[in-house]
Amino acid sequence: MAALPEYAWRLAPDGYATRRQLRAMGLRPGGQDVAAELRRPRKRRGPLIAYLYRVDLAKPVRPMTPGRAAALAKAMRARRTCPNCRRDAGYCIPPSLGMCVPCDSAGQTAA
C-alpha cells in the first residue's frame, strides 16, 4: 500500500478538504478513501492529524427526509426525558448524573 501524501498544517493544495469543510460545502466523502493528511506538530504529544478527501469525488449530502427527521426528534426526546420523574427536562440529561438536575438534587439532600 502506498503511503498517503502529507502536507503541513494550512498548506494543503486546492481540491482537498476535511470532512467539516466538505460538510460546509454541502458535500460528504461518499465512500472514497482518505486521499491525504495534514500534520501539525505539537511539543509534548504526537502530531495532530487531519484527513483530507478529494472534493471532485465528493457527493452531495443526502436530504433530510420526514422519516429521518422523525427518528432524530424521537432520539433527542429520549435524551431529554428523565428516567426518574419521566418529564422532559428541556436539555439533554448528563450521562454523569443519569437523571435531571432537580431529581439529582432531591436525592442528594435526602441522603
Describe this structure in words.
- The protein contains three helices and six strands.
- The chain is of the alpha+beta class and 111 residues long.
- Strand 4 and strand 5 (48-54) form a beta hairpin.
- The strands form two sheets. The chain has a four-stranded mixed β-sheet with strand order 1-4-5-2.
- The longest helix has 15 residues, at 66-80.
- The mean pLDDT is 90.
Characteristics of this structure?
111 residues, 4-stranded mixed beta sheet, elongated, 6 strands, alpha+beta, 3 helices
* Quaternary structure: single chain
Number of contiguous helices: 3
Structural class: alpha+beta
| Helical coverage, percent range | 25-40%
Rg over CA atoms, rounded to whole Å, is: 22 Å
The overall pLDDT, averaged over residues, is 90
Order of helices and strands: EEHEEEEHH
Low-confidence runs of at least 5 consecutive residues: none
Our estimate of the beta-strand percent is 15-25%
Shape: elongated
First CA to last CA: what distance?
Answer: 60 Å
- Side-by-side strand order of the widest sheet: 1-4-5-2
Beta-strand segment tally:
6
Largest sheet: 4 strands, mixed
Task: Note the topology.
Elements: E1 6-8, E2 16-17, H1 19-24, E3 27-28, E4 36-40, E5 48-54, E6 59-60, H2 66-80, H3 101-110
Parallel strand pairs: 1-4
Antiparallel strand pairs: 2-5, 3-6, 4-5
